Amino acid sequence: MRVGISHLGNLSIMIKAWAQRLGGGLILPPANSQHTLSLGAKYSPEGLCLPFKLSLGNLIEACELGADTLVIASGAGICRLGYYAKTQEQILRDLGYNFEMISLNLSKDRLLGLIKLSKRLSNNASWFRVISALRFGIAKQIAMDKIERVVQKVRAVEQVKGTANRLYAKAIEAIDNADDYHTLKKVQRDYIDQLNHVAKDTQANPLIVGIIGEFYVTLEPFSNLNIESELGKLGVEVRRRTFISAWGKFSFFFNYLGLDEKSKIHKAALPYLKRDVGGDGWETVGEKVLHAKEYDGLIHLAPFTCMPEIVAQNIMSSTKENIPVLTILCDEQMNRTGMLTRLEAFVDLLKSRRRARNNTQHKGR
């Protein structure tokens, strides 16, 4: 069985570790690129969103590399994610590819579904081996996410721009190559230590900007033109709630115990939005309410034509929380120069607001 998947941030590192321990034949398409997007956009219905087009491009590339089994995440509810598998399967068959499509319903199957899928794809390996492989993959994901949180802070204050990004790239490579828990822990510890010792501007007081919005475009750097790195160059510290390891923890584990983090976010959104509108729309509104006093501003990332995020965008403009929000719609027409111009203007606005607020507080004394 030669299993093809699509990319989402650094998730492929975790899946690769899982596959190697199970001896499975994993087909990893190249990292997302303009070629991937061009392929997906060419064969997708025009009105579909960027995550659909990029994931379709990944699956085409996987088929070209010899994948005979394709695995795709799906979900229930209003978001079009629930239609991805069927629609993409039909497109791929029309293109002449021969494969088996396996859909994992993350909102329904959860952890048990993931374990069963692992057992199926590993030619019925023992439960111990399946769970052991999954644990090691998750450990790699947790390590990557811990390092990325440090990178987000360091980018904003590093004296030599790009230092944190270079260390992060090396850390990802080292985590990918780690083949046991001891090595993995050492890599995590060493790279966090290196990041903490990067030469920093001790006088800097960086703006804090939260990244909110749809799951895929907040986590896949290619889809948002590496917006977090660009903000770091502008001296902005990024805060993002959405990490794959944190999402998995609450979705697969704490959810069973009734400790769903989303309930806190949904409660915050209730004055403005009283029900799920699909995707991450409810969470987007709640994030604004929860963090309005913590951040200088918010950047709302949304795929073009994404109805849940369009609903959230329109609601956020009328909430009482006094925090600027910049919405960036992501699609194949998105232009780096235009995005950078908007980011620079938004950061200038936030700096002006902070100066005005500080002057008011100073006069009040």
Can you offer a commentary on this structure?
With 365 residues, the protein is of the alpha/beta class. It has 3 domains: 2-125; 134-205; 206-365, Rossmann fold, CATH 3.40.50. The protein is built from 15 helices and 8 strands. The protein has helices spanning 11-22, 34-43, 50-64, 81-94, 110-121, 127-157, 163-177, 181-196, 215-219, 227-233, 244-253, 261-269, 281-291, 307-316, 336-364, and strands at residues 2-4, 25-27, 69-74, 100-105, 207-213, 236-240, 297-303, 325-330. The protein has a 4-stranded parallel sheet, with helices on both faces. It has a 4-stranded parallel sheet with strand order 6-5-7-8, sandwiched between helices. Helix 1 runs antiparallel to helix 6, helix 6 runs parallel beside helix 10 (227-233) and helix 7 (163-177) runs antiparallel to helix 8 (181-196). The radius of gyration is 21 Å and the shape is globular. The protein starts with a strand and ends with a helix.
Key terms:
alpha/beta, 4-stranded parallel sheet, Rossmann fold, 365 residues, 3 domains, 15 helices
| Total helical segments | 15
Based on CA atoms alone, the radius of gyration comes out at 21 Å
- Morphology: globular
What distance lies between the first and last C-alpha atoms, to the nearest angstrom? 71 Å
Percentage beta strand: 5-15%
Under the CATH scheme, which architecture of the largest domain would be assigned?
3-Layer(aba) Sandwich
DSSP strand count:
8
| Largest sheet: spatial strand order | 2-1-3-4
Class by SSE composition = alpha/beta
| Topology order in helix (H) and strand (E) letters | EHEHHEHEHHHHEHHEHHHEHEH
Quick one: CATH class of the largest domain?
Answer: Alpha Beta
